[in-house]
């Protein structure tokens, strides 16, 4: 058996100048990428497609408008990518001369809730800021470094303002992203597309079509994908039996769970463990 060793990405490979505090890496598309860490911070912004992000052994579904904060203490990988487009905003906290208030808008390094979805209207402004940031960060001048830091601050404010939660009452929030967020929290419940469409006042047909557009999965397969990801986490970090895990993530039949698990991971739950 070949064991792949985790590697570290170093800032001198990605920043134009040693004094630069911000840089960007556009992946269009992003390939599968093995587990790694880096000596800088990163905001990973998903602009298109789907895939799976595994950070510190915890798998998460990637889809459009998803943001993830990655610190130097984290290790992560990307797999099962499908037409996935990413913009990675890299930054060095020790080099930034930003407002002290900005730290309240970014997760703490030890915080577990380090990813979220952003409303579509806010993402339009995020994408414009990222385009400007990409241009400025490639220049090696004092003015460009100052402009990069100013754009970075605006970017952090925008992704904080647009953050979606299942409890949000903002009518401008993108309904599908709110549904995705709700499913991520309530995946253990038994529900069907009609139940969700009624809860969020959206037609079943529109819901199914939009879920497919955002996640590249059908509604039912998206539910299975979320549940299987949660099961992978429990197989890694708990002593629960496979049967108990199946029940815990929302399956009433452990054999059916095993079939779905193998379909999504190409391994049985016992082999994965």
TrEMBL record:
InterPro entries per the UniProt record, alphabetical: AraC-bd (IPR003313), Homeodomain-like_sf (IPR009057), HTH-like (IPR037923), HTH_AraC (IPR018060), HTH_AraC-typ_CS (IPR018062), RhaR_RhaS-like_N (IPR047220), RmlC-like_jellyroll (IPR014710), Tscrpt_reg_AraC-type_HTH (IPR020449)
PROSITE patterns assigned: HTH_ARAC_FAMILY_1, HTH_ARAC_FAMILY_2
SUPFAM superfamilies: Homeodomain-like, Regulatory protein AraC
Residues annotated as domain HTH araC/xylS-type: 177-273
Domain of life: Bacteria
Signal sequence extent: none
Transmembrane segments: none
GO molecular function per UniProt: DNA-binding transcription factor activity; sequence-specific DNA binding
Keywords from the UniProt entry: Activator, Cytoplasm, DNA-binding, Repeat, Rhamnose metabolism, Transcription, Transcription regulation
Protein name: Transcriptional regulator, AraC family
């Amino acid at each position: 058996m070949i064991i792949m060793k985790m590697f570290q990405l170093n800032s001198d490979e990605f920043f134009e100048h040693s004094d630069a505090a911000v840089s960007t890496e556009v992946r269009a598309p992003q390939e599968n990428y093995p587990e790694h860490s880096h000596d800088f911070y990163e905001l990973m912004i998903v602009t298109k497609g789907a895939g799976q992000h595994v950070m510190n052994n915890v798998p998460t579904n990637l889809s459009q408008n998803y943001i993830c904060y990655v610190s130097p203490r984290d290790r992560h990988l990307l797999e099962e990518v499908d037409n996935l487009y990413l913009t990675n905003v890299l930054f060095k906290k020790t080099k930034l001369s930003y407002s002290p208030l900005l730290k309240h808008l970014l997760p703490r390094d030890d915080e577990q809730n380090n990813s979220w979805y952003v409303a579509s209207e806010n993402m339009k402004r995020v994408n414009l800021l990222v385009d400007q940031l990409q241009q400025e960060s490639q220049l090696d001048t004092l003015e460009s470094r100052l402009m990069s830091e100013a754009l970075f601050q605006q970017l952090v404010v925008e992704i904080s303002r647009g953050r979606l939660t299942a409890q949000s009452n903002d009518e401008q929030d993108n309904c599908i992203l709110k549904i995705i967020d709700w499913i991520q929290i309530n995946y253990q419940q038994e529900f069907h597309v009609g139940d969700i469409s009624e809860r969020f006042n959206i037609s079943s047909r529109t819901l199914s079509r939009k879920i497919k557009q955002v996640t590249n999965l059908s509604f039912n397969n998206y539910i299975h994908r979320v549940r299987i990801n949660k099961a992978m986490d429990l197989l890694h970090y708990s002593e629960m039996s496979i049967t108990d895990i199946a029940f815990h993530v929302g399956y009433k039949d452990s054999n059916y769970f095993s079939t779905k698990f193998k379909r999504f991971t190409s391994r049985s739950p016992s082999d994965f463990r």
